Input
Amino acid sequence: MSKSLSYSSITKKIVLSLAGLFLISFLVVHLLINMLILFDDNRELFNAAAHFMATNPLIQVFQYVLFFGFILHIVLGLIIQIQNWLARPVRYNRKGYSELSYFSKFMIHTGAIIFIFLIIHFANFFVIAKFGHIDPITYDSGNTYEDLGLLIIKLFEDGIYVIFYVISILLLGFHLDHGFQSAFQSLGINHSRYTPFIKTFGTLFSAVITLGFISIPLVIYFF
Amino acid sequence: MDKLDAKIPQGPLAEKWTNYKAHQNLVNPANKRKLDIIVVGTGLAGASAAASFGELGFNVKAFGIHDSPRRAHSIAAQGGINAAKNYPNDGDSVYRLFYDTIKGGDYRAREANVYRLAEVSNAIIDQCVAQGVPFAREYGGLLDNRSFGGAQVSRTFYARGQTGQQLLLGAYSALSKEIAKGSVKMITRSEMLDLVVVDGRARGIITRDLITGKIERHAAHAVVLATGGYGNVFFLSTNAMTSNGSAAWKAYKKGAFFGNPSFTQIHPTCIPVHGDFQSKLTLMSESLRNDGRIWVPKSKEDAEKIQKGTLNPTDLPEEKRDYYLERRYPAFGNLVPRDVASRAAKERCDAGYGVGSTGLAVYLDFEDAIKRLGRHVIEARYGNLFQMYEKIVDENPYETPMMIYPAVHYTMGGIWVDYELQSTIPGLFVAGEANFSDHGANRLGASALMQGLSDGYFVLPYTIQNYLADQISVAHVGTDSPEFDAAEKSVKEVIDKLLAVKGTDTVDTYHRRLGMIMWNLVGMGRTGEKLKKAIVEIQELRASFWKNVKIPGKNEMVNMELEKALRMTDYLELGELMARDGLLREESCGGHFREEHQTPEGEAMRDDENFSFVGAWEYTGENKEPKLNKEPLHFEFVEVKQRNYK
Amino acid sequence: MDLTLKIWRQPSTDEKGKFVDYQVQDISADASFLEMLDVLNEQLVVNDEDPVAFDHDCREGICGACSLYINGRPHGPDKGITTCQMHMRRFKDGETIVIEPWRAKPFPVIKDLMVDRTAFDEIIRAGGYISVGTGGMPDANAIPIPKRDADIAMDAASCIGCGACVAACKNASAMLFVAAKVSQFAMLPQGKVEARERVQNMVSKMDELGFGNCSNTYACEAECPKEISVSHIARMNREFFSSKLISEKEK
Output
């Protein structure tokens, strides 16, 4: 902890962005797998994929890398934020006004809510899948998987949970929208030719991720 | 008279500086460490000098009134810096730059100094490029030049409209490097309030910390003043609010002679005065005259209509406009030197042809240039200036012609120095605008930056060693001497006296009143009558100031009113000396225009027979008439002619 | 026009400050913001009150001395100008204007609206220069520099060191200020020689002084009176990143 405090501000930002971009890649995989649940009625595709993710040795190793990425991103984000608060001990009477992206100012807040979501999310799925018991289901193809899909569907039948989920994902979307292009800026990639593309792509990408994740509980709840 | 030895080296003009350097005394590196130099002021001249001294190995203490050396008013110079590089291959040379400068100064500067200035001008550009100053470049990657008033070649290097800023930042970075190294100690927010002279030599200064009010003593083997000009004596000028003449004035009162105090430059292209709340005037770069055309209406009727706002200047047809500079000076047109352009504007306005609501403005019109080059070219060249104008005046200069009027800008006069930039007090050197040396009676555009950097980078680092070479046996000068005691005591007495007045009028009201006297009586059109009147009025105002000024608070705090009052006491004396100098000089030359001395066409009429000298004033005591000393000017290498820009 | 001014008053760094309301009458719309404050101060002096201390000097937008946080924005509501260039026609008659000093740990208040910005000088001293002495330089045209590069260097060099970037940033980060200097020299061949040490030393000085971290909100660019682009920050990040990767480990 004290060591990471002594890293320069730019080093921290670079590591934060790299971790962020890495987590984004995980989001893509996560979303693709989740979407599978909507493609068949008996959740075979989804459960097969979940089974693969839970048993493949490479993925198992990767899981630790992912954990590390999360922790790095969160810890660095916190350190940066604490330093930032300390940099202005006396606040302004009139709040700062900026013509720019509103959510860029609230990365720590959206991040904190996403973090809470993550803990609940973990408790709901990961902990149960890893350490609890999930009823297996055998398909016509002869394959038997733990029916993780059913767990999801049951949860998403609870309206309050759906609202909580949707709001969290929306905030994740805003976090991503700023975070995506911000990561490139921190990595020193700002160019009159490419930056507009990066910004537009980041926004579209965040929208797709958000809508993708949101669509699942909504479909399950309403249909 | 023997005090005024200009110490001009022997030999032909072009060899003088080389000869000087070859024969001067130097200080060896081990001894440099033992020598202390105080530099007051960290603008172009001061910062470049302090940095160069530090590099050489001297112990330097630099003082500035701002929070950072980067804020010195050199930063506001817009247009550019001259050098005789002849990159455009248009016939420039060191001699031509020298000649233009001497001629532009109306033959009231010392040949040898001006030649040296032209000679080192090229090294300045090399130096600045090496420091990372981003001068404007052409597509081939080489440096770009533009032309300025008083020259027929393009020799002005520039960095957008921010040349002064970029050069100052260059000097500031060199200074920062030395501060980091420890060779220069920078003392900011500190104002020099007196010079300390011990056994006839400048040995230190008394300063006031502008945050705590603490009066401090600083000693050294030599003192360099680079404290800028005193144009703020006019209250309204293009100078910064804190630019002041106090350091120079204190040096004068300690025995340094004051050279040509009346030589003031009134810059032709400033935004006109428009209200009594105004605190300063804004300069629009002279470079605008490259593309803008100056005019007033041909008839008084049209001028009156424009003043009343019933006629729009853009509706006035071409044949009803009087492009008076092009008419009077076909060879130089809108690019005549500043004094000529200013006077011509005043002449037109006094005759009733002025524009704007006050009638005290002329037009600077870009219509033709926009038609010829396109708006985008004009925008690229002057965009920031146009934006600045629009902010202040609330009119779009791309559509309506700009209004301009002359304003006080620069003081050619200053502490008298010899070829080594040493004043009449041994050990007191003066650089930049604070000295009187290189511009004669009128400074050409883009020459102030050149002179400041020339003095700081390339002249003082040599000449100061010639002085210090015989100081190596003097141990570090202490501040425990009767002279320091006396100087500190007198500074404290003045402060106490000011704070004790507790009158009714603020410092600014006095400053405004002094400004009115100076502008009306010691301004662009001077007469013996007016100048005599000015002396009396200033004396009266001074007496009133000491009876009636109101300064709140105490010394031991941030007290800007006290700071202003301390400067004001000096302006109230300096203004009088300016009037005296103007009165003495029964001729017109450069920025000094005596209405009694003009040609039938209204041009300045010099009197070389009787006034080809530097008027160096010597302080003789409180409320006593100062003594005039003359340094005759000999022109061995140029032919003295009536200036002709026709 | 008549105005109510809500101004931060603080006698000195160590004493507590508070907001005080003042009224000014008959202000000309053509007056600049600082001239309006001059009127207030003149009024205060006449009434035996302590005038409001604020930094100012050139009053033409180039020295960088003026530094007021007006109604929640450094240098007031207009883009691309300093406080001294803002004119009262920008405000409405009867308006209340809140005026605060720059707020950042490395910029302590000296008095009222005057803050100490020597932290910026310290950053420059850490490497914001090219280490050449005086004299003996090659001809200025010896190294051609592409016009585009020179122009970018000039864009960066136009920084006036006012600190509006720090004041505007929610993190009180000085990245735009530091990046402007790093970027200027990074674009010029003369600056390349020391580029690696420069960026590392300047950034570590910036961190040491207690400025916040950049979180790319770009408020600095929006409020910079010289409209310096955040692309310079990216360039600095790049310079920093590559210098860290390439340079030898410190002993």
Notes: The mean pLDDT of chain C is 95. The longest helix of chain C spans residues 231-246. The longest strand of chain C covers residues 3-9.
